[in-house]
Amino acid sequence: MPRGGAPKRPKDLRRTLRSFFSYLGHAKLSLLVVAVLVTISGAANLVGTYMIKPIVNSLVVGDIEGFLRSVKITALIYAAGVASCMGYTQTMVIAAQKVVFDIRRDLLAHIETLPLRFFDQTNRGDVMSYFTNDVDTISEALNNSFANLVQAVILAVGTLVLLFVLNWRLTLITVVFDVLIMLYVRFSSTRSKHFFSLQQDTLGTLDGYVEEMVAGQKVVKVFNRESRNLADFKSVNEDLRMAGTTAQTYAATMVPVTVCLTYANYAIVAVTGAILAIAGQTDVGSLASYLVFVRQAAMPFNQITQLGTFLLTALAGAERVFDVMGLKSELDEGTTLLVHDDKIGTDKTASGASGWAWQTRDGQHIPLAGDVRFHNVSFGYEPKTVVLKNLSLFAKPGQKIAFVGSTGAGKTTITNLINRFYDVDAGCITYDGIDVRDISKAALRRSLGIVLQDTHLFTGTIADNIRFGKLDATDDQVVKAAKIANADSFIRRLPNGYDTFVNSDGANLSQGQRQLLAIARAAVADPPVLILDEATSSIDTRTEWLIERGMDHLMEGRTVFVIAHRLSTVRNADAIMVLEHGKIIERGTHEELLAQKGEYYQLYTGSAELE
């Protein structure tokens, strides 16, 4: 559903209902109680109204004892109805929240298993709307509509039956008016729904425009766009006004027209009934009871129409949620696990992270060293677009490999393939001699530390964000990681040090500080392989120098892949690879590439630029 759009009816109602009822089954006992109590409440309403007949007839014939007995019975009936109503509303709230809790839990659990391609192709706002708009609509429908719809059906059927029982002649008149009311309600609902949908779409456009303009106020003011923006806003706002006015015009006529037809029906039935009573063809008690039923006869039919439409809208939101939950999870056929092996030793060696090994399916232990190799790898995000073409490279344990090249050359794609965010189309990637497709994704990613250009901090303290790289890290390990990243000094200057609260993705920190925390997060994970994707892009030159000193210690004995636009950050790499259109066009050390006076030389001396 586009942002701000009104959900339509479900495309596959049967499948959606099947999935929905499977969740209702989680609270089947509560729903059974609700069904019983709703039935009692509806029946009490019907029987209580019907009791007007014996009460009035008792007064007509002067039977005071019968009158008092009928009043007591009626009071007990209504008391039972009130108790049942209170019982089912409270039970329904508990059941609804249980169902919504299960849906949200399963939705997040499933989304976390989806491949990265899903998040590349889906707007963040759409993903959020699954948890907010769609699930909230389901919650609202369960809390306020489900039980009311059941009760409305009971009242509609019961009222119609009792009307025929009391006087079938007068009921023919009532049925005609009820049909007229339902036809108008349906017409009005259809028209107003169309314009309400248009209103929601326009409101979404308006919200997006305002959000965009507010976020870009600096640019707006620099280029003096205030007047033009206001004119554009007035145009969209006028569209919203027109859609809202038309929608409310149709919706506002529904109640007065219904009331008018109901009063007309009541007047005609009252006069006709009086004539029948005078003629002795009906008793006064039946007429009195009948007239009360007539006043409330249209209400349940209107409720069924309105609640039915609302429930279909809720099911449309449920269908979107179930569609996402039906997407295939990220495929992981890897069987090789990452285990701690005391036989390997506890001292860090040139072979990588000490004490860790790959455990193959047959139980063999292969020391985790950090030897990464690409063997004729080809890959494209789309079938017709090839990003990497027959790429081969190797990184021995402890080597620092740097990638440089223009935007779109394939630098970041290489790192995405190492951690299996995507799988290769051809060729293979080996890690310590093992095809990465044979390694469990959780184990593979546990062995990698990644620092991205776009840092992301989570709600919590500074220490919590560093500990995100290793959830069981001690306070000493957190501080040590911060010192490695040269983040300790600025953290201690914060009001609460490591307990300083971070919110809004680190809005209370500078971009450079956020980058330092991301590096510390990778450091605390202590991985054998590091991937640094523009890790120092948002840091000034002095801070970059301090970080490089700390990173030298962090990178010691580890395989490191570095992607950088600042060529000064890759001069000490063991190998620099220049990529262009998915191919390595140059490789060598900093000095070797300068001596070749090729693409790298032009980039380094400023003869060419990284686009």
Strand content: 5-15%
Structural class, by secondary structure, is alpha/beta
Write down the Rg.
36 Å
Q: Superfamily at the CATH H level of the largest domain?
A: P-loop containing nucleotide triphosphate hydrolases
State the shape. elongated
> What is the fold named in CATH at topology level of the largest domain?
Rossmann fold
N- and C-termini, Cα separation = 36 Å
Strand elements, count: 15
Number of domains: 4
Helix run count = 19
**What's the CATH architecture name of the largest domain?**
3-Layer(aba) Sandwich
| Helical content (DSSP H or I, runs of 4+) | 55-70%
**Biggest sheet features:** 6 strands, mixed
Which strand order does the major sheet show?
9-12-13-6-14-15
* Average pLDDT taken over every residue: 81
In the CATH scheme, the class of the largest domain would be: Alpha Beta
Report low-confidence residues grouped into runs of 5 or more: 1-7, 345-353, 607-611
How are the elements arranged and paired?
Elements: H1 13-24, H2 28-50, H3 52-61, H4 64-111, H5 116-121, H6 124-166, H7 168-215, H8 217-222, H9 226-278, H10 284-325, E1 337-340, E2 356-359, E3 365-367, E4 372-379, E5 388-395, E6 400-405, H11 411-418, E7 426-431, E8 434-435, H12 441-446, E9 448-451, E10 460-461, H13 462-467, H14 475-484, H15 488-492, E11 501-502, H16 511-525, E12 529-533, H17 541-555, E13 559-563, E14 575-580, E15 583-588, H18 590-596, H19 599-605
Parallel strand pairs: 6-13, 6-14, 9-12, 12-13
Antiparallel strand pairs: 1-2, 2-3, 4-5, 4-7, 7-8, 10-11, 14-15
Helix pairs in contact: 1-10, 2-4, 2-6, 3-4, 3-10, 4-6, 4-10, 6-7, 6-10, 7-9, 7-10, 9-10, 14-16, 18-19
